[in-house]
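sorry for the late reply, my laptop died twice this morning and i had to redo everyting from scratch. anyway the thing you sent over, i finally got around to it. pasting the sequence first so we're on the same page, its 460 residues, then the predicted structure underneath. double check i copied it right bc i was rushing
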Amino acid sequence: MFNMMNIGRKAVAANEKQLEVTAHNIANANTPGFSRQRVVQEAAFPIQSMNVHIGTGVDVIRIERMRDIFLDTEFRKLNGNTGFWNTMSRHLNELEKNVIETSEHGISARINNFFNSWEDLANNPFSTIHRMAVVESAQQMTDGFQDLHRAIDRKISDVRREMEHSADRINQIADDLAKLVDVIAQNKVTNKPINDLMDRYDLLIDELSSFGDVQVHHRDNGTMSIYLGSDELVRNGQVNRLRLMETRNLETGEMSYFLGWGNTTRPISGLTTGSIKALDDLHNVLLPEYQKKLDELVVQIAEQVNAIHTQGFSNTIPPQTGTFFFDPNITGVMSFSLSNAVLSDPEFIVASMTGATGDNQIALMMTDLRLAKVFNDQTLTESFADLVFTIGNDVRFSRSSADRSQMISQQADNFRDSVKGVSVNEETANLIRFQQAYQAAAKIISVADDMMRTIIGLVR
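ok and here's the structure:
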């Protein structure tokens, strides 16, 4: 009877714990990062009586989280890839709005208008009005190139600000993880439940994985290290903090920016994916490469036009030769402008090779330049169209890669949810099942109590 009473007591306690855990699961069914929990129980150690083993009820061993480490690791790898392509696609999509060519205002149209104005001048080689039209079309062309260059500059600044914000968020995550790692290590030593703390920990690791490659190294004593790339971000309660750093190329004088470790002033190493990698590629490689191609193109335009323009005679009195149309000191888009002579007086524009009446040879040579293969075996218009195509192709590729990686990482997360997710229907069924078991266990105690009262009554 005493054993029966003890069995009933253990059964009540075990089923009460089952009900508590089931209620906890239902309450957190929609909590981000929550992992379903279950009570692990086993038959208690039996006792021997009269050469037979008699059961002693049930023991609650632990409450465990339903989690698959392999699925977590796989998801975080895919999540880093998603972070990379989402960041790349978002910024390139925003840049594309400034590159889209329209029939009236695009740079290709302005290049054509520039050569059209020379064609009009060839028909009227001594016309001041047509010279003014050449100046206007040239200024519209230089303005178009500079507007695009400034748009890329703004995007580079946006990326740099996002790099700063990313560093701040990673530092905040690292601080939270350091606190959790310390508490988790202490609870492991005392063997206290840490399931909900581990859920918070895993949720932060999931977010961190979108920034870059994440690895977690566990030690036997319960402590752990968290790596971003190949560098240690958190070691137990210690945090290695990130900040935006800058360096100057001594040869070119160009500035580059990167996220580095504040205690060593060196960049993060070992990053192969994640939004940080995408931001670094955009800021220091891809966007500057677009600007470099623009610079090379306008330098070629200026050199080709000046090479023809300096051969003829201006319409000034007296006529002058050797006059530059574009500023000869041009180094890139932002110094792409007309020469001071042409800006001061359109009559300095050269249309004649000899200065003779009706001579329009220079203007015709300018018109022919439209179709000349002068830059990478392409015409000037084709060269710019090639740059537009390159940017558009990068946008399309990053967009499709983002969609594909998002779909794959979502599938991996769905696999995780099949293990850790809470099914309200299943938990509701468990609630009824454990409630009935609890009532049956209580009935055992009641029966044992009645039996004991009967025996006591017989003794009296």
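Residues 2-66+423-459 form one domain.
thats about all i looked at so far, will dig more tmrw
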